[in-house]
Fold this sequence. Notes:
The protein has helices at residues 13-27, 37-42, 104-108, 171-183, 186-192, 208-211, and strands spanning 47-48, 54-55, 72-75, 79-83, 92-100, 121-126, 130-134, 140-149, 163-166, 222-232, 235-245, 251-258, 261-264, 278-281, 285-287, 290-292, 295-298, 341-343, 346-351, 357-364, 368-371, 374-377, 384-385, 390-391, 394-397, 400-403, 422-423, 435-436, 442-443, 453-456, 463-466, 470-474, 480-485. The chain is mainly beta. Among the domains are: 72-168, Sandwich (Immunoglobulin-like); 172-190 and 222-298, no CATH class; 338-406, no CATH class. The strands form twelve sheets. A four-stranded antiparallel beta sheet has the order 6-5-8-9, with no helix packed on it. It has a four-stranded antiparallel beta sheet with strand order 30-31-32-33, with no helix packed on it. The longest helix is centred in the N-terminal third of the chain and has 15 residues, at 13-27.
Amino acid sequence: MAKLPSVTSSIPRDLQQFILRVKETLEGTGPDAMVSARQLIAAGIADGVGNGGITAPRSDIVEPPRAPSNVSAAGALATIIVSWNSPAYRGHAYSEVWAASRTQAQTDASPQENPIIGQAELVGMTAGNNFSHNIGAGADRWYWVRFVNRNGVAGPYNLTEGTFGQTGQDPAYLLSVLTDAVTSSQLANALSTRIDLVDADASVTGSVNQRVQTVTDVTDGLGAQYTVKIDNNGAVAGFGLASTTTGAGNITSEFLVNADRFAIMRGGSDTTAATVPFVVQATATTVNGEAVPAGVYMADAFIKNGTITNAKIGGLTADKITASLLNTVDFYGNTIAGSTIYLGGTITYNTDAGGNNIGIASVASPQVAMTSTGANFATGAFVINDGSTNYTPFQVVGGVAYLNNAMIKDSTLSFAKVSDNIQSTDYQAGANGWKIAKGGAMEMNNATFRGTLEVKSSATGERTEITNSTIKVYDASNVLRVKLGNLV
């Protein structure tokens, strides 16, 4: 509360005594002291509102945690990204992520059994809505997520049976496995052997000309056909060439391969040095004890334009990435540019017909919002940690900034109101430094006054005025009783 000025003009004694008593009441201390709205706000008893008013403080309610919703586990090449919706309760502290894998008995069971929640182990804690679990390629886990509030109370898990996630296979390793299988096969050795019957006549048994069958019968549109087939106890494999002519005179050609595995090798007779640019594995198989899923495996690929429904990428280098929704646990880079960046809060997503997130619709009550108009921090969101303890060094209430402690090297203040004592850092009562107490007392070694020094009793009104040339003493009725110095 600001100090009231002293009454120095000549007024009736009874009015002067009344004003002094009012001043003492407003500026006094103890249980009968008057309390200002600013003091109530600073003490946390009230919150400031517009136009200098106050209101009851916001209650810091900590609710019991609820079960997380929309928990998903998306597999990358070596990690599984576990995500969930923002917690919709007050007093949230962090989220726990638990994981389990099948035991050997569960794997060997027919049908296979999934792990239960009792097998799960805590694998991570995070204050965000994502967690990245690095488990390597070709691995799977079942995940459970639960929330913990600021009182340390843990809520229920998202699901009893957990959420399944699986990482992708390492394509480079599987391609090397398939390459070894291709180059070491009897077929590869046979294909690498020189053919002496290429130019032989069709009458020569085994010659290429004997094997080629040209069909000129145009029945059902078939114009020409060449096939090579083998039959191993009913398992037919081979390839064929054919061309057909439609009624409009258009010719369509086909090349089909009927095989569990298809690859192209570099030409040459040394299969140990052969390179295999790609392998098509039509069915899942096991090579040297390694499970290889069905798929196309390529050593190097140059794609001008591609459409990918789901990609598991180990490393990505790109000049530009354009995405409607980017969900990431860790983001590394030099610059982030955008019109709005939110941290925390409750996120509402737009979804497609399949229920997939396709963009952020809105963010409610974000802790931090970086917008084109500046940075907005929610109350209590700005915390500094010294390595072991969280501190809130200042807060803004009702448009007023409050600092707990401040060490200011150089400061310029237009107007200051001090609610407690101010003193020098080396102050010792009766010995060193200076002090100005909030009650009005002052202690210092020496003082220089360039104006008038007035010493006055708040009880009687008696006062002494000291200037550079005179000393005047007034009684309680403001009558000059003593004058020293320049008597003119």
